[in-house]
Amino acid sequence: MNIVFRLAWRNLWRHPRRTWLTTGAMVFSNILLVFMISLQFGMYGLMIDNALQVFTGHVQVQASGYNEDKKMRQTVPDIIPLANSIRTTLNSETVAARGWAFALASSEDRSFGIGIYGVEPEFEAQVSNIPGLVSDGRYLETDNAAEIVVGSVLARNLHVKVGDELTLLGSGLDGSFAAAVVNIVGIFDSGVNDIDRNIAEIPLRLFQETFFMEGGGHQIVVVGDGLEAVPAIRSTVQSMLPDDSDLVVLDWDEIQPGLKQAIQADMSSSFFMYLVLVILVSFSVLNTQLMSVLERTREFGIVMALGLRPGRLGRLVLLETAMMGLIGAILGAAAGGLLTSWFTSHGLAFPGMDEMAARFNLPARMYPEVNVLTLSAGPAVVFVFTMLAAIYPALRLRWQNPVDAMRVA
Amino acid sequence: MSAVRCVDLCKTYRQGDQDIKALDHVSIDIAKGQFVCLSAPSGGGKTTLLNAIGGLDIPDSGEVYIAGERIDNLNKGELADIRLKQIGFVFQAYNLIPVLSARENVEFVMQVQGVPSAERIKKSTAILKEVGLEGLEDRRPAEMSGGQQQRVAVARAVASRPALVLADEPTANLDSKTADELMALFTELNEHHNTTFVIATHDQRVMTYAGRLIRMLDGRIVDDINQRAA
Amino acid sequence: MRLFGVLFRLAWRNLWRNHRRTIIMLGAIGVGVWAMIFMTALTRGMVDQMIIDSIAVLPGHVQMHHPDFPDDPSVSNRMLISEADLKKKFDGAGFKAWAGRVRVPAVISSERESRGVTLLGVDPDAERGISFFNYDEVDGRFLVDASDQGIVIGRRLAETLETGIGKRVVLMSQDPDNEIADRGFRVIGLYSANTKAVEEAYAFVGKATVQKMLHIGDTTTEVVFLSDDYRNVEATFQAVMSATDESVSVRRWYEIDTYLGTMLGVMDGFVLIWIVVIFLALSFGLVNTLVMAVFERVREIGLMLALGMKPGSILGQIIIESMLLLTLGLAAGNFLAWATIVPLQDGIDISVVADGLEMWGVSSMLYPKLYASDMFLATGVVLLLGFLASLSPAWRASRYVPVEAITKV
Questions:
Q1: What value of ipTM does the predicted structure carry?
Q2: What's the fold here for domain B33-56+76-226?
Q3: For chain C, percent helix, then strand, then coil, each to nearest 5?
Q4: Which of A355, A398, B191, C343 is a Cys-bridge partner for C262, taking CB atoms 3.0 to 4.6 Å apart?
């Protein structure tokens, strides 16, 4: 081993307790950072997936302005043929057309205003998890049957069960009175209150007839192979739309801008917390290295008098710090990785998560995501700050003059 | 009653794989008001004996009595009390608490004893004057010479009027003139206050001040001379 | 007491012996404490705002319903108590405010669109101070009295319905016999709220007008009560309980919206965890500093022991030194927190992520809340844990053997 390395290493262990305490601060912060960052990334992934798999999908074709206003007349004309041709072009089943209307749903004793989706029974299950969440009865099967599936809270509020009839009252595309009588064939339970209370689904063709849609609908949902595939799908679909059409292709972030922003808001508050932790570690390092330089003033004075340049001593201090930082980073990443892996397989829950899950469509247990990035990001930042903290102690050596240094008792 | 009585003290240290007998069946009896010098070459056992008398070190066997009270079987707290109330110490170096001024160092023992502040100030002023440090009361140890520091230590050792003062190589770091002044001070205090002094030293000049000279070698007393009638 | 004086003086002077180390450590503690309190104030501000906004919309701290109403919010589950009886029970019972209201689900339609809303029949005089918006800030005007014929809706809902002040809308709901009851209203005012969701959800009409439309005489579906502080609603709850019998269900806000109740607990937990985590990050530096301080002073400690100071006093001296360091750091941190939060109390604009915050039910202005109790909590936790962390180095110092310590080079 190089003599400088050996010197640095030995110096580091002159005060083993001090070195371990300083390293301990790094390890503590690193464990925390690895764990929290893994948890966040796991949660963000789930948040996006959960939110998108209900209705949004990855990409939608809509009439321009529909996303903001949700007005009946902002239609995608001839929506079923268009959806078919998108399916063919993308060579994918994960494309489905929908219409949406507001209607008054009345059972024998109760009436509530709800949102009605007209869906393609054959394809809806490819883009949404609602068909899979039917807990009672079955999902829609036939394209234009007078059938409906409703949310569990809505069913309770309407005092209805599978097999009962519902009357839908609303207004059609032209503003005229629209009505239909449908049979409840299924009840879904998504766990999210707002969805289970306000949403029902009927076949798209029935929807078009009831609301006089003239073959139109409101959205074509496309789900791709992960979020990475979104831009490609988007441009393919975009190229299929006639130039003069009023239609737009939106990606999930445009459809639901809140999602990314919620993540950004959460990230920025987390980063503030991480930064504080890292700064506290830097203080610890600064203190230790400054002490270590000051108590060696005499020793440094002697070697400087022997002709060693202060710069080399400064580098020695930096090397010591780097060694300490590396120990902290490696131990921290290892311990953090172990801890996080345990939670990755067991999941993590804390009080209040059930309520949050029901409100925000979050999972009731969180599973942190361990990968190279989540393992190394925190320790790397801590290491950089550690080195920054050592700059002042290292520079102090340069200002030292050998005779003064030796005079210090 | 004797001020210090040691009966058959033994103490063995392990150094490497060798046992060193620092005290080998040592018995002495020091009367009140005596001025005793313990002299021995390095490793002769004088510091060990001094520490045993001062309750800083517990002998392996034997008994130590201070003013008739047996102390070798006391616990740490009781020993601390004995040291605090009966014994004044002057060490070779690092005698003073660096963050306290000369006066505060002198008052330290009294303060821990719980002496009221008016009395403390009176006593410390008087004793600092007696040891020739008038005007330097507010200096910190780092602002004083070695001789001055030792005089502060002596002042502290005698300020609370202990019956017994133990000094371990008090002149080791002093030049000969300062050492002479310090010994003169010891002698004067010994005569004025009838304080018992036990000084461990290998400084020939110090020994000339002593009323009684005890020589040790390899943990045993080899010579016990009464230089003056005590 | 005199002994304490000596120990205190020694501790204080020793603290400033190595002033660089002390200042760095003070910096670390100051930053740590600042972060504890600053972050807590931001979180409190956010959650408080969310809870207060949500309670304002509920509204009230305590609500009274027919026992079946929460599960089946229909006018048939109204309370059969006359206005006069309510007045007799609750007027002069010492509530900050109370109001009987009619709350039913309804469908609101303009010529262009229909939506579901919660229809609220209110008495504007009784609601003053309960309502989540200020009557004077309503565009147009608010209801004048309980038999006002107009309707006040949210700004966002008006946009969706393409309606506005002076235009007519139709409200449709059910009467107790499950017959559709509808009536036309003229829009007289538009209110604003912190979130779009609230602006879409509620329509206000005169209580008497709704009672007439629904044929329910002078009965109401809910009575809401306000207490002085949402954190302490027990007195109000008990007062309502003692004035009523089993025929109604009385619930506190955190029972009505369990999510909100949980959030309060989750936030308290978060604050404590955050404070402890920051302290732990600091504790390494603190212990390190004390270990170094003791290490440098071995000989003096030996001397003091030799002079007859009891080991307990040595322990005390180190602890006092540690507490002094912490106290100074705490003072700096608390002051810094106060000085940074006060200028921010007019609100921090975080509307860049407004859509995201709305997902969490949070408005886009953040008002940090500096509670004395949080400052005390942080200070108390730091002092307590700091005391515990100092015990080990202090104990080691007190265990020195005087002779060995003095001769240690």
A1: 0.83
A2: Rossmann fold (3.40.50)
A3: 55, 20, 25
A4: A355
